[in-house]
Amino acid sequence: MTTETAITQPDYQVMPPLTDEEYAALESDIAERGVLVPVVRDQHGNLLDGHHRVEIATKLGLHYRTDTVEVGDDEDARRRARCYNLARRHLSRQQKRQLIADEVNADPTRSDRAIGRLLGVDHKTVGSVRRELGGEIPQPSADPARVPSEHDLAQCLIDIIIARYDQSETARQERIWALPLYLRDDIIQWSTSDVPNLVSFTKIAAVLYAHDADDEVWEVMAPWLLALAECSLAECADVRAARNAGDDWRLPGERLAELTIALWSDDIPTDVRPAVYRSLEGPLAAAVVETDQRWPIPTRDTVISGAARVIAHLAQAEPLSGAGQPERTP
Hints:
single chain
């Protein structure tokens, strides 16, 4: 029987605790390879992300890296803690439904589609959870095109990427993190506009696949991309239903989303994933070529120069408004 590990919940441990099996697997991995993903603290030293990693590393007497981010008030710290975990951690169906309930209760004015986009679930699932809450929280009619919580999630993801780039000690590490840093504007665009999820997913995922992103980059990006792919396919199904179209009517990027789910699904054991990737290399390459015909994939030199422009803008303390990259052909 699967049970949950009883650990003391820190102030900013906003996600469900790991099960005993998940905790044991994490402990075994850390004992063998160390803490690969740095923990995140705010400027006051409060732990926002990595509670289990800290607990296990302390027990085993192991060193771990720490990223420090600036937060505003306590509410901002909690929001960032949730965003960091959403960007990294896979959740079970039951855990996601609980998280959906938390999001509905936290801000009932957000629509089902807005919450669905944030958590990477079908808006119908959000509606189902909302009804389970007893009907006391109505479905709002507000336009979800601009959802603050999505912006928070994008900002947290970008914070992680920038921190890794800043911590680079070699030219190779800088090149590794220049790739996701170049994608900063696309991540921001996903969170601040009504661009369809499939468009944002396809443009970002295709660049990562085309340039053979490093395992460290996938460690950060894959959970978010997986959720975005699942949400994108749910929206594509809605479009087909609205047009009375058959399953053979496909949108550009759908195949790439399906392959991403097949590769990064939590059902795939970590040690098996390299073999799965090799088996999908041909279809992935074809899907990337399809994307390149609609949204040209940048060259490596363009990626490096684009990342340098992002760093230059950040050094000038300019806001994250999407000024780092050159224009892309729509």
